[in-house]
Amino acid sequence: MRLSEISFFSTRLSMPVSRVLYLFALGLVCATADANAADAGRGSAIYAKSCSVCHGDRGDGNSWAKGQMRPPPRDFTSAQAKAELTRERIIASITHGRPGTAMSAFGSQLGKQDIEAVAEHILTAFVAKPRPPAQTDTTRSADMSASMPNRLSGDAVKGGRFYMGNCATCHGARGDGQGPRAYFINPKPRNFLHPDALRQFNRPALFHAIASGKLGSEMPAWKQVLSEQEIADVAEFVFRQFIRPAVDKSREGKK
User: Which listed CATH number (3.30.70.270, 3.40.120.10, 1.10.340.30, 1.10.760.10) goes with 22-127?
Assistant: First the structure.
């Protein structure tokens, strides 16, 4: 053995035992962290594919299937869920299902590790996550008497035909954001019946929203396709049909 090799081994053997143990422990921690991250990703993916259709993307049971189920899907964010659900309880429910509900058994479809991964995701993402404190709504209401921009006057009948043919697939025929494409879209389409929408969307706001679209969403800028008059027509329909339907009915009563 050459002198350089003896020197190398002497250096390695002279490394303090505490440092060796530290590096060994660090390796275990990193390996565990990588495994946990992989489990978390798998659990989230399984939930999105198999569970969100009923329990909702946010785990609150607010899904398109909610109205078809009795009892409705479990809201994992509720106070009751936080009080009742443990990791073991969630695993048992996923494995064996819940009699008397639409929750079926996944024990024959998912392996033990997959079930544990999705249970951990539900527990950490929804059940154990504290609900944000209720906030006082300070949003100011828009002036609902404001007219269309540029002295335009919308035709609700024409706008309704365009809305039903092009907008209802996302926003829904009832304006509730539950159109047939809504389930596949994130962020979700605007719900015109939501209290915030009913406060904020007067005619000018609707006109500009339709004309300019919304970045980061599937709402296009219709000004690239429609004329200002056509945009005003759609805005008028949405305003009369969803935002202020009572206004339209009162006008009809005066005819």
Answer: 1.10.760.10
